[in-house]
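Sample pair:
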Amino acid sequence: MPEQPPTPEEVQPPRQDDGLDLARQLTRATAKSTPAARKRRAKRDDRPRETRVSGAHPDDRDPQLLGSQLDRLVADQGWELDLRLRGVFARWPELVGADVGAHCTPESFTDGKLTVRTDSTAWATQLTLLAPTVVRRLNEELGAGTVTVLDVLGPHAPTRRGRLRTRDSRGPRDTYG
């Protein structure tokens, strides 16, 4: 009878696990048999499968519009008045008229007092006369009682250079423009 060639198992000696392989096997076996692992498996198998499907009506899981989320953020932070004021500053010529808006700009708003800077003293006088009308118009935009006083400032005077007095000069002039 012809001799059969040896099979690979017969040729190679049985593989012996080294220390690292044995440690891995022990760790896996221990992890599967701990009481905590058994409890986790039991909980996972016992609880009913709940599918979260969005229905026909909108809910919190649906995509939200960016505008509504921004409105909610502004309301939560209390930025409504600040944003409305910045809107008034940006639309100043539209609110007071193109002619007046071209010659005066709002500078600040503090505690109901709106400070406005004008190009010349003539425009400062004009805006002082128009102050009640401007305050009424701003309160229509911002809400009643938001602006109580309109403080009108004239133009910035340039710094003086050179000699303090010059003979036959025209003086400091009040508008420089």
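The first strand starts at residue 104 and ends at 110.
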